[in-house]
Amino acid sequence: MELLGGIFAVAGSVFLLLAALGLIRMPDLFDRMQAGTKATTLGTMLFLIGLALAEPSWAGKSALLILFVLFSNPLSSHALARAAHYAGVTLGAKAACDELAGECDDEAGEVTA
Amino acid sequence: MASLLFDIAAFIMLISLVLAMVRLLIGPTPADRAVALDAMTIIALSLIGWISLRSGRVIYLDVAMVYGLISFVGVVALARYVERGL
């Protein structure tokens, strides 16, 4: 059981490392935000599951932490992305269209910004 | 064996903390720095969990929760600042 927890912890830390690499390598702000939020959420959840498996009496508190990370991390990232968009940060050169600004032609682009 | 695996995980998390700090230092806009700071606080939350396992004290998990709460409020405040100034 403890060995399984250690394997979960190493997997979570590898996801955290990939998130940090994405923070450095991605071309524009919103790509960086995607790498830095989703991968860190998954990595932290995997590490805390490993912690709960290694110490089963701490499972309640670990579950509470997992729920907290799962709820708060996408929320703060969403607020930050919206603020950056309205502050004038533009998409990278490879992005197709800006949906929040109403530049898209398909039916998904009918959002009124 | 399991303790060694947790130590390896903590070492990898330290490396990723340093990599995120590079983005915090070179990020061109304030929003870049805010994203890097968000990722760094989440990584540090996992590291506090490792500290609680190594020291055998469950109280550090409460510390991790309060730290995550403060970082969430801090990132939302930074988002307000990026959007319309103080």
Provide a quick synopsis of the model:
The complex is a heterodimer of chains A (113) and B (86). Chain A has 113 residues and is mainly α.
Account of the protein in words:
The complex is a heterodimer of chains A (113) and B (86). By secondary structure, chain A is mainly α. Chain A has one domain. Chain A is built from 3 helices and no strands. Chain B is mostly helical and 86 residues long. Chain B has one domain. The chains are: A mainly alpha (113), B mainly alpha (86). At the A-B interface, helix 1, helix 2 and helix 3 of A face helix 1, helix 2 and helix 3 of B.
SSE map:
The complex is a heterodimer of chains A (113) and B (86).
Chain A: H1 2-25, H2 29-54, H3 59-86
Chain B: H1 2-26, H2 30-55, H3 59-84
Helix pairs in contact in B: 1-2, 2-3
Summary keywords:
heterodimer; A: 113 residues; 3 helices; 69% helix; B: mainly alpha
Number of domains of chain B: 1
Helix/strand-derived category of chain A reads: mainly alpha
Q: How would you spell out the order of helices and strands of chain B?
A: HHH
Biggest β-sheet of chain B, characterized? none
Poorly predicted spans of chain B: none
Radius of gyration of chain B: 15 Å
Question: What's the N-to-C terminus distance of chain A?
Answer: 51 Å
Largest interface, C-beta within 8 A = A-B, 53 and 49 residues
